[in-house]
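Exercise 7. Given the components listed, write out the predicted structure of the assembled complex. Treat all entries as one system.
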Amino acid sequence: MSFDSTYTKELPLVENNPTLRQIDDAILLPTQIKPLKGWWIALGLSATALLIGAVALGLTFYYGIGMWGNNQPVGWAFGIVNFVFWIGIGHAGTLISAILLLFRQKWRTGIARFAEAMTIFAVMTAGIFPVIHTGRPWLAGYLIPLPNQNGVWVNFLSPLLWDVFAVSTYFTISFLFWSIGLIPDIALMRDRATTKIKKTIYSVLSLGWTNSNRNWSNYERAYLILAGISTPLVLSVHSIVSFDFAVSVLPGWHTTIFPPYFVAGAIFSGFGMVSTVLIVVRKAFGLQHIITMNHLDTMNKILLATSTMVGYSYMMEFFIAWYSGNPFEMFAFANRVLGPYNWAWSIMVSCNVLIPQLFWFKKIRRSIPVTLVIVLLVNVGMWFERFVIIVISLHRDFLPSSWGIFYPTITDLSLLLGSFGFFFTFLLLFLKTFPLVSISEVKGVTEGAQPTIHLHPHSNGYPKEKA
Amino acid sequence: MRLREEREQEIMDKKDTGNILPASSDENQKEPNYWRSFRELYNDPEFIKERNLEFSKDETSPPDTNSLSRLSRRKFLALMSASAAVAAAGCSNYRDKGVLIPYNSKPESVTIGNPTFFASTCDGCSNACGLLIRTIEGRPIKVDGNPDHPVSKGKVCAIAQASVMNLYDPERLKNPVDRTDKGNPKDIAWGELDEKIIGALKSAAAGGKEISIVANSIISPTAKKVLDDFTVTYPTTKIYSYEPYGSETKNSAWAKCYGAGNYPPVQLDKAKIILSLESDFLISDGNKVEAARLFAEGRDVFTGKEFNRLYTVEGNASLTGLNSDYRLILRTDLIEDFVWCLLNEFLIKQRLSVFASDVNITSKLQNYSLEQFISANNLPKEVIGHLVSDLSKNPGTSIVIGGSLLPESTHIAINLLNEVLGSSKLYSKEKNVHQIPISTPSEIDLLISNLKSGKTGVVIHYDTNPVYDFAKEFGYADALKNAPLVITMAHIINESADAGNYVLPLNTMFESWGDFQPRNTFFSTQQPVIAPLYNTRQKEEILLTWAKGNKDAFKADLYHQYLMDNWKATVLSEFKNEAKFNNAWSAALNDGVVMSKSVASDVPMQFKNEAVASLNSRMTKNGDFVLLLTKSSTLGDGKHANNGWLQELSHPVTKVVWDNYAAISTQTSKSLGVDVNDLVKITTSSGELEIPVFIQPGIAEGVIAITSGYGRTVCGVVGKDAGFDSNKLLSKGTKLSPYLNNDVKVEKSSGSYDVITTQDYYPFDEPFYKDIQYEREIIQEGTYLQYKSDPDFLRREIHGEAKEEELEYGSINKQYKHTGVKWGMVIDLNKCTGCSECAAACNVENNIPIVGKDQVKKRRMMQWIRLDRYYSGTPEVPKANFQPMLCQHCDFAPCENVCPVAATTHSTDGINGMAYNRCVGTRYCSNNCPYKVRRFNYFNFRDRFRDGIQLEESYSLMANPEVTVRSRGVMEKCTFCLQRIMDERQVAIQENRMVKGSNVKTACQEACNSNAIYFGDQNDKDSDFYKFNNSNLGYHVLDDVKTKPNVTYIAKLKNVFETEKSEAHN
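Answer.
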């Protein structure tokens, strides 16, 4: 009986078998040294982008939404495209933290913290857009159901209102989840702090963590409960975002497939973004042994799976449009392929469905340059997916008399750039202030960290039963 | 209370007797186990006393009245309120906010908040339609038609609708200007100016120099009298009258054919068969207001009257042509041949009338054969066959109408054709009147040669702009430099004013007195509804002052008195008694119209065959191109170029705004190698023009059509440089007509220019888009024959054989039952011509801002009602459908349930409302509106357009106070004129009755020239509206989306020979 142990033995999640001290050092290094030149350059770039966005936002506030390219048929364009795009990005974190935690996927530990941080920043970025895209953002408070002297209540039938609740809940839970997960690590940083200021800040943030048994058991309990709460949110947030479209009557929006399709797409884009950034970060901070090639390989498999789901959704949309026999529906989809925006549709299909199919090949999954290119394309493709859904459906709807076309303005592009600036500025600051990998969790999955039983060399691998 | 007092007293008594012991001794003489303070421990008697009191010391003792202020409460309140009032008055600088004075003596018929209506007359063009001006607290805010007016019958055109903007235009001339020193124009006082000018006039008259008054056609009898008086004072006066884009050739042909007079009005309502030859009578040719109404009366399914049938033969793709049942495309310079061929058919072949035996005429027809013409020009033989048989079978009820731009020879042929067909019965007995005959080109030449030779002393531009209007061939601008004194009366600076010495600001029609006699059957009056806003005078009183030869002759009511005196002597001469005259005069002003008592006896018109016999020159095909200069339906001859509402009202066919263009066919564009927006250079003997190309489906090959009124170089900021000056191509009209030229050179020029439309063009002949409006059931059509044989055909087509009750939608929503009033609108597409008057009226009623060309380009138009135009067929031979599209006030409005803040909601009377103050501006409602009728304030357009000219103070007077002016970031849309519905509700409450649907008229409904819009209560089963609303031709646009709209469209019936809709399409 031949027995190949490589098939049954799990690959090590942390390579090179580091000591616990080495893990601490490796992960905390970026927070303890002076910023490197590369970090300054990156921050300079992203802060510049953020400033450009801020100027564009100022112009929008001063003059009005007219600074954007939006127009009569196309009431929503870059603003909402960016919103859905960033909300989608924000899905990987919670999926990795919560769902994979519940499924006991231990490989998540290497990337969870970082993905969660990205979720928070992505949701923050996304949250800006629904507010600024309104004509009178100073009245955005009207969307909150507060009793008022006018006796006007919010409209609970409107999916936009559901968005308000869904996104704010998602942000709150994600933030709690992330900050609770940070506590043991912050306590570690407190203990290693060299300056008084750091010591004070980290002491406050660690909430008196003593690493006591009691601490740990409460922590584990809280973490698990929050994971339980987050899990439905992963599915609900993007489902509700998709209702913005699915609940309308517009051909190309009015589709029952949207909730699962949007969730799959969100996970797809989230993983795309996490991969993109991680590939750079693990190299820049020398964490290849903690965020290993196996991690990237696994993420690529998830990308492949979700890409295929997204591809299925695209196909199904076309099939249903044809099968419905509804002329509006048929035209809306034909117009995606044949209309003036067919280039956007082509970008979407090739980046989201065709190119990720290369991940069927193990060599490509494990090639970092190729992976980087593909995940970058996934980001592009997923942005265009939202463009296709929103702008193409709107620009030619029911009455041909009111058909139009949308051209982005410089303000639109600046705000898109600014959103990346906002996201990456926060991300870079995060890298310098908090451990980007959960130290306590990684320690738990290193070789030999688990309780082991000394086995008899000739035993069958199981502890002997007591006689 | 008593208990406490007793106890207090007890303690006091004890104190007084000195019988004070520690508290413990009072009880059981023990020291307390628990003590709160040393005072308690040691049984301080004070403490014991206090402890036994419910309230601390002093608290219950009565106040010391002596220590209080002596101020009484009454006095205190008085002082406080006085100081509050003083503070309030002192803080707000009310003096800066103008003077607010209530009516001490309330003017009769004015109730604050209620509008007052005044009858008046429009002076926008020579049709002089009757007006009913709505004023609120003294401000004219809306213009509609005077229902008592015999011609316009309560309707006016877009120019009149938008005319309130001319009154409040901040760029109006506000003072007389002395421009003698060109570099340094300065304001001048009227008195000084009058003195100078009277002096100059006197010396010119004394020196035998001509005083030239250049006027448009004069249709006011009293103005004519003023001119006569002026001529008496200054005998060298000569009056030149011209009408840009008028009917000179039509009238001169008429005079040749019938001896005298002008082309009369046509009784289109009595016509069964109408053949329009290059005439856009539904929108710009002749009296459009009357023609559209009469034409629509012949296409009303609800009267049961037989439909008329409209054939057009034209080179341009006119609105009339696209509304016709049969449209034949023919180069404009072949139209005369076509008429001769028809004459040949009727006279030689069918020998229809007495003229068949008139050799003088028949000899002229020998060379024309209809068959050959048909095959030579590839015309559809079948349609011509229908036309010929229709015309010959309907003697006396068919009419041929020629376009005003056709040459005299064509009009003579057309007049003959009408005689042959017996159509002269349809000529109205009324006569179009000009008080002063229109000057011929040779007379204008004389004016110019007098100027050049120095025979002219003074030139007075009598509210005209000849430098812009005259054909450049005349060389007027150059000749004007020789004039010693040029006086221009104008509302806004113009090219002629710029070239002259004095510019005299004029009153608008809202500030003027006047009378008009556009036809011999009636007079209409004009009265001021507001005092002049600026230091302006009306043109008649200026001339009258000069005619009196004394600057002091001017007084405020000079012309008013003069007008009344003239009427006392003429129109109302039967009222000798002063009091009776005053009554009659007030009645005339009240009605706005006085019918003529003595209409000239009806002399039968005799056609003079020598007009045909002596005809030498004929229009024949020549060269590759034919140039048509057509009158703009919005800017007219360019006089209204500074009116932004008119500039932004899209061309009814091409939907272009803010510009004119050279409309050419696809074939012509291919042969010239140009595409849309490419510049071409058009050269004629009179001049050349570089203008962008617009490819217009359905225009004949080689025809180039350019709309008038654009390209003003000296104008306000709104109209300046909008479009291209087509007058550069105008000719004297000696060859064909001033507006028609087939000796044209066209070549591609370099560069391009953006021509902007409000409706995007898609290749409607490609399979992807072909007949999309029919496929989506946006446009429902049938034929008249089909309707007559099966009135329910449409209902069956839409719903199959389903019964009425089965048509109720099954919905997961519970539908609100509108049991009371439920408002609805019906739009009859048989009567709608697509002219856009409704949009013009809506702009004014609902304070809709001008957004400017750049914003239209971005598709951010703000008009609440738009005229959708759909083409079908091929770009060479298209068919068009027009459909007014406005908020459909759906029962299941998709916009309502997606608004997160409930800013758009449904009322119990079925109206989809907008709460502007609640709107956050998510634009979700607009996205979810299948009709895309919602409009978003992407900017504060008033601030953005032309550096905020719409925020000028004078414009704020123009706003309808009953409609909110929307801020930026707010969604808006048609409200079914909610303010008018609220007025009716108010009245109903006062009168203690139910709201009545027929009492409310929306602005678009009031404006619709062809009465195609009905509005009312859908639940009022006794009303006419109920009948319209439940017509078997009624349908809802996008029924499939199940929004349950409350706007019902009456399907268009084409009066063609085919009985099937499908055949009608193809």
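Discussion: Residues 142 and 154 of chain A are 7 Å apart (CA to CA). The mean pLDDT of chain A is 87.
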